[in-house]
């Protein structure tokens, strides 16, 4: 059985120029990923897996979804900083706070063309295409080795810890956990949510080796 490659990478040798390049690549990946998230959300066929969890918590504590989202991401970052090494990086903070504005921008650009009033075929294609684009962007973010969003780091860290299980299945397990717990707490689950649970992990693993070659050629890293 082929040994599974770990995500943790030592970036202590990077100089300022290399970090700037890596963060630019991360931002490109983040923009692509959140284009996918926007297409998914505009289809109005269900919230993404992590948002279902956030919705549930917001109803329990009586806070807005946005407020709970920031609080949960900050808690995750602190926990990961205290319990792991080499995962929380500058890009983690970028992912945590830049995603919302990117989604708002794409919603403004595309909301008039894709929405709940669009033909069902258009909404289904938007949802599926969103999953594919989100996964491609996420793979670029991961391969930049500049940091990954706190919620995405959960699956990344667990994948490194559980060497016998492929990343795709760990990601599916994490998404399923967020959805089930979020649903129990009062979050909204739709057909798109179920599709995201079973598509995101396998699609990210599909894209990882393909985008890694491109990212490494730009960063001149092995």
| Parts with pLDDT < 50 across at least 5 consecutive residues | none
- Major sheet size, sense and barrel closure: none
Number of self-contained structural domains: 1
Compute the number of strand runs.
Answer: 0
- End-to-end CA span: 23 Å
Q: Helical region count?
A: 8
Rg from alpha-carbon coordinates = 17 Å
Proportion of beta-strand residues? under 5%
| Portion in helices | over 70%
What features would you describe in this structure?
- The protein is mostly helical and 222 residues long.
- It has one domain.
- The chain is built from 8 helices and no strands.
- The chain has helices spanning 16-42, 49-61, 65-83, 90-110, 120-143, 150-161, 167-185, 191-219.
- Helix 1 (16-42) runs parallel beside helix 4 and helix 1 (16-42) packs antiparallel against helix 5 (120-143).
- The longest helix has 29 residues, at 191-219.
- It starts with 15 loop residues before the first helix and ends with a helix.
- The mean pLDDT is 90.
Short description:
The chain is 74% helix and 0% strand. The chain is mostly helical.
Core attributes:
8 helices; mainly alpha; 222 residues
Write the layout of secondary structure elements.
Layout: H1 16-42, H2 49-61, H3 65-83, H4 90-110, H5 120-143, H6 150-161, H7 167-185, H8 191-219
Helix pairs in contact: 1-4, 1-5, 1-8, 2-3, 2-7, 3-4, 5-8, 6-7, 7-8
């Amino acid at each position: 059985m082929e040994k599974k490659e770990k995500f943790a990478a030592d970036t202590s040798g990077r100089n300022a120029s290399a970090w700037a390049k890596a963060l630019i690549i991360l931002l490109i990946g983040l923009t692509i990923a959140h284009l996918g998230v926007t297409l998914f959300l505009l289809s109005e066929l269900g919230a993404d897996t992590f948002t279902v969890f956030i919705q549930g918590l917001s109803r329990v504590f009586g806070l807005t979804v946005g407020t709970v989202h920031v609080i949960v991401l900050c808690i995750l970052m602190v926990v990961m900083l205290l319990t792991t090494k080499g995962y929380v990086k500058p890009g983690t903070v970028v992912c945590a706070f830049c995603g919302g504005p990117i989604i708002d921008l794409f919603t403004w650009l595309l909301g008039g063309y894709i929405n709940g009033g669009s033909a069902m075929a258009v909404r289904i294609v938007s949802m599926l295409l969103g999953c594919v684009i989100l996964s491609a962007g996420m793979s670029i973010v991961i391969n930049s080795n500049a940091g990954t969003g706190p919620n995405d780091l959960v699956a990344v860290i667990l994948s490194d810890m559980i060497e016998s299980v492929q990343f795709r299945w760990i990601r599916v397990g994490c998404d399923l956990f967020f959805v089930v717990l979020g649903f129990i707490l009062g979050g909204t689950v739709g057909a798109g949510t179920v599709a995201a649970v079973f598509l995101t992990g396998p699609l990210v693993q599909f894209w990882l080796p393909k985008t890694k070659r491109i990212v490494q050629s730009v960063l001149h890293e092995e």
